[in-house]
Amino acid sequence: MTALEHNLALAHDWSGTFKIMGDPTRLKLLSAIHYAGQFASTVTELAEATDVRVATASAALRAMEQNGTVASSRDGRSIHYGIADERVHHLLHWIGTSHEH
């Protein structure tokens, strides 16, 4: 594989992640998940923390789950969210987001 082919493959691999992270609502949700910790927050808690409607947060989380950016964990009737893509976790640190703990 040439260097150019490698770069083009990277562009292909990262484009979906950057599409997710380029949306302000999704980036705010990712930042809130990152801050609270893995599988600590429900969609309602994330919506309140980011000042978006629950329906908007739910749709964004669903899209991010389909993309592989976040994962969900059911606890009874509640669903909690965590960052599923370690690359996204590193990018969130790189842009300066922190953890609560």
UniProtKB/TrEMBL annotation:
Origin superkingdom: Bacteria
Keyword terms: DNA-binding, Transcription, Transcription regulation
Pfam families the UniProt entry points to: MarR
Domain HTH arsR-type: 6-101
Transmembrane segments: none
InterPro entries (UniProt xref): ArsR-like_HTH, HTH_ArsR_DNA-bd_dom, HTH_MarR-typ, Metal_resp_trans_reg, WH-like_DNA-bd_sf, WH_DNA-bd_sf
Gene3D superfamilies cross-referenced by the UniProt entry: Winged helix-like DNA-binding domain superfamily/Winged helix DNA-binding domain
GO MF assignments: DNA binding
Official protein name in the record: DNA-binding transcriptional ArsR family regulator
